[in-house]
Structures are given as structure tokens and as C-alpha cells.
Amino acid sequence: MKTSIRPPAVPLVTIDPYFSVWSMADRLTDDFTRHWTGKRNAMTGLIMIDGVPRRFAGLVEPNVENYYSEPKAMTQKDFGLTALSSTYDYEELGIGLKVSFTSPLLMDDLDLLSRPASYAGLSVRSIDGKSHRVQIYFDVTGEWCVNSSDQNVVWRQQQDGELVVLQVGHEQQAYLNRSGDDLRIDWGQLYLAVNNTSPGIRTYIDSAAIRKEFVRTGEIVTANRLAMPQAVRENNLVMACTWDCGEVSAEEVSNVIVLAYDDVYAIEYFGDKLQAYWKRNGTTVSAMLSAAIAEYPELINRCTSFDRQLWEDGVRAGGVKYAELLVLAYRQAIAAHKLVTDRDGKLLFMSKECYSNGCIATVDVSYPSIPLFLLYNPELVRAMMRPIFKYAASEAWPFEFAPHDVGQYPLANGQVYSENAREGQMPVEECGNMLIMAAAVCAADKQPEFAEEHWELLSKWADYLLENGLDPENQLCTDDFAGHLARNANLSVKAIMGVAGYSLLHGMLGHSTEAERYITAAKDMAAKWRELANDHDQDHYKLAFGQEGSWSLKYNLIWDILFGTHIFDETITQKEVAWYITKQNNYGVPLDSRKVYTKADWVVWAASLASGQEDFVKLIEPLWDFLNETPDRVPLSDWYDTKTAKQIGFQHRSVVGGIYMKLLKDKWIQ
User: Which pLDDT score is estimated for 63?
Assistant: First the structure.
């Protein structure tokens, strides 16, 4: 479907934190494609129409310092973005070309969700009533399988049944050899696969110089000239295919290319090297690629159906601009995770805290992301929480409150945040997050057994919040970039809702007496909160108790509505929403009264407090404007300046799943 938003970056191949490639430009021909970190992971697409070359993706010359007259870019006539696909429509010299990038991340099918295969679909037809001779070239570079282009790669090409499979990988296969944030994978194998039964298909592994050969003649006659191993940058190795479409008429002809990545080992989990979920029953790469090709027509239909339903739901929930925010957030939120199972076969959905510190399974990154996953597969929320429960129950975790993380991606061997110094922890934050997530996921599908399995920890954390949560000491919260803050009113709300969530869990498990005790305690805390947080002018509530004239987004209040607990008076949310509208800048409401920056996820949560759609739309449309106008061309940043639309930090983070909060509210509150 056609979209009016100009995305800051367009998702193309989005599977997991390592296999995630984007276009960070207005048009696919304006720049090479890039890994979400910004490093070049190039692809190039060329078309020859009656002997005249045009570009439809990337560039031909990889070294900008070399003089080369690039073929003219094909005229991009349209662009469409859905949750699962990004589509470019071109017209030039009597030919219409459609290029679609689809990552079929359907959450009702975990084998498919985990399958590391993404599609580049090509369709071409005549648009002027004449027939035209058409040839198409497409490649991806060895940059996709190394951290830096000075690393050596090796490669091979093979026939596998009806498939031709090209493969390239780093010469040194040191699995899980490092952790960090601004890193790319340098183990495993990158694949390009095409159906050999398609007429006119040929494949190559060679220097990027073959692009120029295609531009000159429409054919590649000399290929496979490189000696192994070779540094990627030496000859800019590419895996390429050409498709001789023959004489193209008004009847559309189509083909598909599969891009896939087998990381062999995906996550180290407390000493165990885990493979991706799709491999758990012994599925081979060959079988995975064959299935990806064979199922393509069916998958496109399933993706189209999902895309259509999500769009309709989004428009109903918050209008067209809200629907476009949902679409842009979908693939990013999922691709910031890796799906694996532990040695007992239990599902683990491991997030990477992208462009923050690279932590893995971060609690306060999972918490804002869960609206998306509660909507489409609550089991993925349980899979986010399991690593934290495992670590917190071990002797390695020394504190009475919940951890922040279990390591640095992809090594989940124990918390790294703040080097485990007590003063650097987030005790109220993470206890509240875990309790709210537990209550939410058990309520989502009415399966409280998960909470019962971890009852000892949940009980300890609930009691910690009872004692320490109402008026928090000087500490960090999830918005740790703002620094330590004592008596944080929004953090207090989280603590209160954590206690309320614990009461709900008691109720689901049939513990009526304890359920009543904890909900009464939460109501008592909420009454005291109102007295502590009420500012002198009584039209909003403070950033921190004792700080007159201050204010903040009270996004944690949304759970009182979703849980139906109603422990905070409705006038509180009404006052807050009205206040936020008066405090908006051009690109949204600041996070609080201290700075002009904000967080995209929290803006949507705060807007979702509104009782009517009109106020919700007023609060989220400036977020749409930010994404449409920001000069920073990166995958959706959740931390930005509300006056300039400039990125402050963060990109490609899973927290954008929080943009689904209004949709979740509408589904739950009917």
C-alpha cells in the first residue's frame, strides 16, 4: 500500500541484530544499502532496457574516490511500505519495474519468524504497448558477513536440486568471538539463492567490476576470477545473479532472490552455545533455502493478508499517521531480537540493546517493547523474561531486586551493566518491569502458570516495591540517560503498578486473600502518590516529589487502564493528557521539564492515556512529523530532540514495539 511518510530509513532485509540491512536515503539509488549500524552492506541493482543501462538499487562504483560516471538512476515513481514489505516502483524507457523486499516475520509461526531468509522480488512489464529487451543484474557484497572490510572471506557456488546457491563467509570461523554494540557478524555464512529452473538466470561470485561489464554489454562473459581467500575491500567481492527477461510485453514477468544467513551459533547462554530456533530439529541450510523458495507465493499471500489487517486496525485505532508508525516499527522491533531455545527446549527471545550499550535481554528494553508481542504472540514475552529469571535465581546475582540484563549481545553469561556496582542499578525500575510484564503476559492468554513457576522471585520483588517503591531513593530508571533522580513520580507509578500486577497474578492463581491484600496496598500507595505528586497549581503532577513546577510523562499509568485496576483516579490521567498537549513542541512532548528531548515509545504510551481519539492524534502526529522530517537517516530512533527533530541517540531498538500500545489498549479495552 502507498504510504505518505518519508521513513528516515527503509527496512529491506530484517531478520536479527546481525542480519539487518536498510536503505538510509530517499531513493534506493541514492546510496549503497547499510547495516543498521550505518556501515555499508551494499547491494546493487541494474537493468538494461533495449541496450540502455539504468540503476534501481545502490551504485556501481564502490570507491567514491575513483572517477566513474554512474549509470542514470531509474525514475522512482512510487514507494510503498507495509509491516512486512518495502516496495519500489520504477518507470523508464517504456518499462515498469517493481522491486519488493519482504521479511516474512509472522509471529504466529515461530519457525518462519526464526528462518533467516528474506526476499528480493523483481517484476517487470512493458508500459508503452511495445515489447522491450530487458536484462536485470542484482548483487550483494562480502561486506554482509564481516565486521570490517579488511577481513578475508572464502566462497563457493553449488547446485542444490533446483536451486543455485552462492555462499560467502569470513575465513576465520570463530563463533561468538566477541560482544559489543557497533559490531557486525564475522562468523557464519551469507547465502544468495535463486531457482535454477527460471529461464535466463545466471549466477556469479566475483569482483564488483562485473557491474561495469553488465553496464557496458548487458552480459557478463568473464567471471569467477578471484583467488581465495581475499579481503573484502581488495576487489569488493560480490555474489550476483543476472536475469535475461527476454522480450518483455505488457504481461508481467517475475522472479525472486533469497538472501539468507546461517550464523551456525547464535547466542552464548550461560556457557551454552545455542543455535537459532529454526535449527532445533536438525533442519539444514539446504532444506531451509528450498523451503524459502518453494513457499514464496504462499508466504507473500500470508504477508499481504497480515499487512492489510494491521493497516485497518491501525487506522481504526489512531488514524492513517498512527498506522504508518505501526508499519515502520514492526520489522525493526522484531529484528532487534534473536530466537533460540535453551538446553531444556524453552524458548528464549533475546534482544540487543542497539546503539545504547549492546546489552542482551535488557529488562527495561523488553518492557517498552511488549505491546507488539502481547498482541501477536505472548509466548515471545515469556521468552524475553526467562533469561532474567534464570540469572536472578542463580548465585551469580547478589541483589534482592531484579537484574538489568544478562550480558552483552550475543554473550548472555551475566549482567554487564554498570559493572554490577550497586549504585548503578535500577532496583525499582526492573522489579516493576518484571512484575508488570508477568501480569500482562499471563493476562494476555490467561496462562498464569508461567508466573507460578517463578513465584519466589516475583514475591520477593513485589515486597521490595512495597517497602521501597512509593518514594524511590536516588537511583536510575529506564531513562538512565537523564541521570539519577530521587523521588521520581513516574517511577513510583511503576512500583505501584508492579504491586497491582502482583495482586492480579494472585487472583489468576486463585489466591483471593493475598490478591486483596496487595491490591489494597497498591490503592493505598496510589492515594499517597496523589498527595505527593500534585503540583501547587493542581493541573498536572510533578516530575519528582518535592520539585514544585516540574512535570514528566507519566507513561507507566497506562497499565492501570489496561489491567482495569483503576487504583489511580481518572482525573489524574485527564489532567496529565491535557497538560501534555500544552507542552508540545513541533516534534512532540518532551520527556519531562528538564530537557527538550523525548522518547518515541513513551510519547505513544502517554498519548494512549487519552480517553478520546482526538487527543491521542494530537499527541502522536508530531512523532510522525519527526520521522518524516528528521535529518538523521537511521532506523527509527526512539530518543530525539522535539524542537529540531535531530536524533539524540539510539537506533534500531526493539523498544519501538511500544508504539503498538494504543492498538493493544483498544484490543484489551472493548
Answer: 81
Q: Which three cell numbers stand for residue 164?
A: 543455485
- Whether residue 46 contacts residue 215, with contact meaning beta carbons closer than 8 Å, is answered with yes
Q: Which residues pair with 44 in a beta bridge?
A: 139
pLDDT at 224: 65
Give residue 276's pLDDT band: very low, low, confident or very high (50, 70, 90): very high
Query: Read out DSSP for 286-330?
Result: HHHHHHHHHTHHHHHHHHHHHHHHHHHHHHHHH-HHHHHHHHHHH
Q: Which amino acid is at 3?
A: T
| Cα 495 to Cα 469: distance, rounded to the nearest angstrom | 5
User: From CA 115, how far away is CA 457, in angstroms rounded?
Assistant: 34
User: By C-alpha distance, which of 187, 156, 157 is closest to 170?
Assistant: 187
* pLDDT over 80 (residue 536): no
| Predicted local distance difference test score (pLDDT) of residue 198 | 87
Q: Map 45-68 to HEC letters.
A: EEEEECCEEEEEECCCCCCCCCCC
What is the CATH architecture of 303-668? Alpha/alpha barrel (1.50)
Angle separating helix axes 427-445 and 455-468, nearest 10 degrees:
130
Domain ranges, ordered by start, for the chain: 10-263, 303-668
Q: Give pLDDT, residue 65.
A: 66
Residue with cell 567490476: 209
Q: Dihedral through CA 270, CA 456, CA 473, CA 550, nearest 10? A: 90
What Å distances lie between residue 378 and 85, 107, 404, 545, CA to CA?
Answer: 23, 10, 21, 35
User: Residue 74: which pLDDT band, with cuts at 50, 70 and 90?
Assistant: very high
Select from 2.70.98, 3.50.30, 2.60.40, 2.50.20 the CATH code of 10-263: 2.70.98
Count CA atoms within 13 Å of residue 115 on its CB side: 29
- Confidence band (pLDDT; 50, 70, 90) for 68? confident
All cell numbers assigned to 620: 502522536
